[in-house]
Amino acid sequence: MKNVTDSFVSFGYWPFAGSFGFNTDILATNPINLSVVLGVLIFFGKGVLSDLLDNRKQRIFNTIRNSEELRGGAIEQLEKARARLRKVEMEADEFRVNGYFEIEREKLNLINSTYKTLKQLENYKNETIHFEQQRAINEVRQQVFQQALEGAIGTLNSCLNNELHLRTISANIGMFGTMKEITD
């Protein structure tokens, strides 16, 4: 208990940057700092990420709507094809004696081509939806990574002062010199 009260009483005492040891002062340790940084990131980044996801969702809905319109057009074509089929069937009754088998072949070809067209449009719609979903996921991943990287760089820049930065550079240069001597 004495250590806890000492940490509150001795706010004026800060150890030198060159010393090592355990910091028992809960107010000066990293979990609180990290929780504050994460809280700020969540608070301010939530709106941006929400807007990005809403825009992406709207684009996907628009793509689905366009696909549905294409599907509606295909259904309209199917109805036209059915009307044409009815017309062909009426003509088949008139020309049954002269070319019953030819008319039946044309009818099957027409149905098959319409079925293939509908199948292609359905496949196109599914591919478009899948592509847009993947693109949305990739964009969100990229933006989250960019935000995390900017946050990490900002945290590093705010934590490093000039003296500590110069000492880190000197230590790294020394390590590279030692590594070079070992490899030579």
Reconstruct the topology from this structure:
Layout: H1 2-9, H2 30-94, H3 96-159, H4 162-183
Helix pairs in contact: 2-3
Number of strands: 0
Helix content: over 70%
The Cα radius of gyration reads 36 Å
Sheet of most strands: none
What is the residue-averaged pLDDT?
80
Low-pLDDT residue intervals, each spanning 5 or more residues: 7-12
Give structural attributes:
184 residues, mainly alpha, 86% helix, elongated
Please tell me about this protein's structure.
With 184 residues, the chain is mainly alpha-helical. It contains four helices and no strands. Helix 2 (30-94) packs antiparallel against helix 3 (96-159). The radius of gyration is 36 Å and the shape is elongated. The protein starts with a helix and ends with a helix. Mean pLDDT is 80; it is low at 7-12. Keywords: ATP synthesis, CF(0), Chloroplast, Coiled coil, Hydrogen ion transport, Ion transport, Membrane, Plastid, Thylakoid, Transmembrane, Transmembrane helix, Transport. The chain crosses the membrane at residues 32-49. It comes from Ardisia japonica. GO terms for molecular function: proton-transporting ATP synthase activity, rotational mechanism. It is a single-pass membrane protein.
